[in-house]
Specification:
The protein is mainly alpha-helical. Helices cover about 75% and strands about 0% of the residues. The protein is globular.
Length: about 550
């Protein structure tokens, strides 16, 4: 591997982030540290949103699923664009008008402080149990698969994973702990440009290899010979993502992830104006529509090139094999730096959001209501240190025999449905009560855990008997069921104990609330492009 390219790009990102924050007292105020002083422009928001979401689990996991099944898995990317339209037009104006630092803060305004504490704790639990350690392990495993770090350094694969986990986790922690959101957003944007260019290079080079130097001929060959793979509605037995879930749990998942998830929305909450926030979110949505070229198409190309050599059961090796086959050695170091940057982005962004949630949502309301800005920043930094160390210790010990991507999504789904139901009830109903919200936040995750983990097999057998099928019920269907149950639970408890208080906002918004004049036309283009993708690729 070209180590000069690796260290050169990594250092370049660090220098740009340092120069972008050196004149900003990021640790002097809580708003400066957690929300970049509400100074983020559209490009920084878009770049950070894109790279906070995309990482090696997408490159390797989703490309592997496209190798094993069809491009139907592109739904994780395309339907996200629709949810981001909702964020820009509906949710973000509400959040910015109220001057929120965290999403649970809104629950304090709407319900009470204990509801805010419970919601903050659920966010932190999902970050600590699933996202932080799994992202590190995915990053370390991905780097080992892509670049054989163990062979380069002359150590075992296990030792290489440990080393990579601690190196990536340590570097990501520095951005999150000392630089705050502004440093994260700047580094994400630079890494995002590199990630987009480098990851698009792989399918182009692969199609050139197939088409004898002409990528368009290569695409025509792959599409003609592997046409069943290009059925975006493909619903073959055992699919990781059956088409039916797009109309059930996928909606719940995407609306939660892109409209109310703290680790995503914190970039938009730091916008310098509503117009900048809408521009950034919608620009990121447009990039999302390009996502399949990066996280799905290479998997299909790998199937075309390696189907006689690589078995379906080895699908997670599809993308690493393709990279090894087509990437020039001179670019290996730069590509490695970009991949590390993608992992860093997700890790440090989630770490910064966890610090914000702990400081504002748990530590201050429970222990120090009169905390100063510096005390809140200090509490957040200590939370980041503890969670980062826990993730780095835990990550190499996670069982990798199953699908890590599937594990990550199922753990997230445990919390997503009930939390989304509570946020929607708080935003769009007047009579939803604090008691109903707290009941839903406790009962909902427990119910999903029992259904999907504890009693999964007997419930599967019962439901399969009802519908006369041998196919397992996908966890996203269960997510929709739990979401629906939670909505009914909130309605029932609120009818018994309704909330009759006035929740109107009288304080002025902290930023300019003039909408971007092109927000609706841009949103319409994104929606039409998403629908066109499904219409054109449906078989």
């Amino acid at each position: 591997m070209n180590w000069l390219g690796f260290f050169g790009f990594t250092a370049l990102v660090a220098v740009i982030a340092w120069r972008g924050t050196r004149n900003h007292a990021v640790g002097a105020t809580a708003e400066g540290y957690f929300l970049a002083g509400r100074s983020l422009g559209a490009l920084f928001i878009a770049g950070s949103l894109m790279l906070t979401n995309l990482s090696t689990e997408h490159l390797i996991g989703l490309n592997g699923d496209a190798f094993q099944h069809t491009i139907a898995v592109t739904a994780w990317e395309t339907t996200a664009a629709l949810a981001m339209v909702l964020t820009a037009l509906v949710f973000l104006p509400i959040y910015l008008r109220r001057g929120l630092t965290t999403i649970p803060e809104f629950l304090d305004q709407r319900f009470d402080s204990s509801t805010r504490v419970i919601m903050s704790a659920l966010f932190l639990l999902s970050y600590a149990v699933a996202i932080l350690p799994v992202v590190l392990l995915f990053g370390a495993s991905g780097m080992e698969s892509l670049f054989s770090v163990s062979d380069v350094l002359g150590i075992s694969e296990s030792q290489a994973r440990w080393l990579l986990v601690w190196c990536i986790g340590g570097l990501g922690s520095l951005y999150a702990i000392f630089g705050g959101l502004r440093a994260i957003a700047i580094s994400d944007t630079v890494n995002g440009v590199g990630f987009l260019l480098a990851s698009l290079l792989i399918p182009v080079l692969a199609l050139m290899a197939v088409g004898d130097g002409n990528p368009l001929d290569g695409l025509k060959t792959v599409y003609t010979e592997e046409k069943p793979k290009f059925d975006i509605t493909g619903d073959e037995p055992g699919s990781f993502l059956p088409f039916g879930v797009l109309f059930t749990g996928m909606i719940v998942n995407q609306v939660f992830f892109w409209c109310v998830n703290q680790s995503i929305l914190q970039r938009a909450l730091g916008a310098k104006s509503l117009a900048a926030g809408q521009q950034g979110v919608l620009l990121a949505a447009m990039f999302k529509l390009l996502g399949p070229l990066v996280v799905v198409l290479p998997g299909v190309i790998a199937w075309h090139m390696f189907q006689g050599e690589l078995q379906r059961s080895d699908y997670l090796q599809a993308y690493p094999m393709l990279v090894a086959e087509v990437l020039p050695p001179a670019l290996a170091g730069l590509f490695a730096a970009v991949m590390v940057g993608a992992v860093l982005s997700t890790f440090n962004s989630v770490l910064n959001s966890a610090a914000t949630l702990f400081s504002h949502g748990i530590w201050q309301p429970l222990f120090r209501r009169d905390a100063t800005d510096r005390q809140r920043v200090s509490a957040g930094r200590w939370c980041s240190i503890v969670l980062a160390l826990a993730a780095m210790v835990t990550a190499p010990r996670i069982d990798t025999s199953g699908s890590l991507y599937n594990y990550l999504q199922q753990i997230n789904a445990t919390f997503f449905g009930p939390m989304l139901a509570v946020i929607l009830a708080a935003l769009f109903t007047r009579r939803a009560s604090a008691l109903a919200a707290k009941t839903a936040l406790v009962v909902g995750p427990v119910l999903f855990y029992l259904i999907n983990f504890v009693y999964r097999e007997p419930l599967q057998a019962v439901v399969q008997g009802w519908f006369g099928t041998t196919e397992p019920i996908h966890f996203l269907h269960w997510l929709a069921v739990v979401f629906g149950f939670t909505v009914i639970l909130i309605a029932g408890v609120s009818a018994w104990r309704p909330d009759t208080r006035d929740h109107s906002v009288t304080a002025p918004a902290p930023v300019d609330m003039t909408p971007w004049r092109m927000a609706r036309p841009a949103s319409a283009v994104i929606v039409l492009a998403t629908l066109a993708t499904y219409i054109l690729l449906a078989q």
